Every structure is written in structure tokens, then in C-alpha cells.
Amino acid sequence: MAYTEIDNSGSSFNTINYTGNASTNAITGVGFSPASVVTKSTDSAIYDWMQYDSPRGATKEIRWN
Fold first, then answer.
1. Using only C-alpha atoms, what is the Rg of the chain?
2. What angle do CA 6, 8, 9 make, to 5 degrees?
3. Residue 63 and residue 65: Cα distance in Å, rounded?
4. Among 19, 47, 56, 64, fewest CB within 10 Å belongs to which?
5. Which strands sit side by side in the sheet containing 49-53, from one edge to the other?
6. pLDDT above 80: residue 51
7. Is the separation of the CB atoms in 49 and 39 below 8 Å?
8. Is 37 exposed, middle or buried (0-12, 13-18, 19+ CB in 10 A)?
9. 4-41 pLDDT tens trace
């Protein structure tokens, strides 16, 4: 099976701290245009993990715990 080695993981995966609220949704500083973004609030355990991806669009989330 042919595959491509990732020599620089920072070009495919990155973790950043995001500060925002329901009205400020722009996430910057990733270093590339991600196809998928996973978020989790660090302020409260009551908020779900959320995933956004490019096929569904930036306003459609998948919630999972």
C-alpha cells in the first residue's frame, strides 16, 4: 500500500488555545486551512466537544462526548 510520510506534523495537525464567545467564531493562528476542527470549553464541563468540518460548513457542528 502506498502512503505519504508526514515529515512535519505541524503542517497537518496543530493545537491552539481559542478565546471567544458565540459571536466571535474566527479561529486564527493554526498555520494552515484545516479540513476539521475540534473544540472543547475549558471553562465548564457542561459544554460538549464539538467538531466542525469543511464538507458540512463552519456553522454545522457535530457534538460528542
1. 14
2. 80
3. 7
4. 19
5. 36-39, 49-53, 57-64
6. yes
7. yes
8. middle
9. 777 777 778 888 887 777 666 677 788 888 888 888 88
β-pairing, 57-64 vs 49-53, is antiparallel
> Distance between CA 47 and CA 37 in Å, rounded?
16
Q: How far is CA 27 from the centre of its chain?
A: 9
- Give the DSSP letter string of the chain: ------S-GGGT---------TT------SSS--SEEEE--SS-TTSPEEEEETTTEEEEEEEE-
- For residue 35, which of 16, 22, 51 has the smallest C-alpha distance? 51
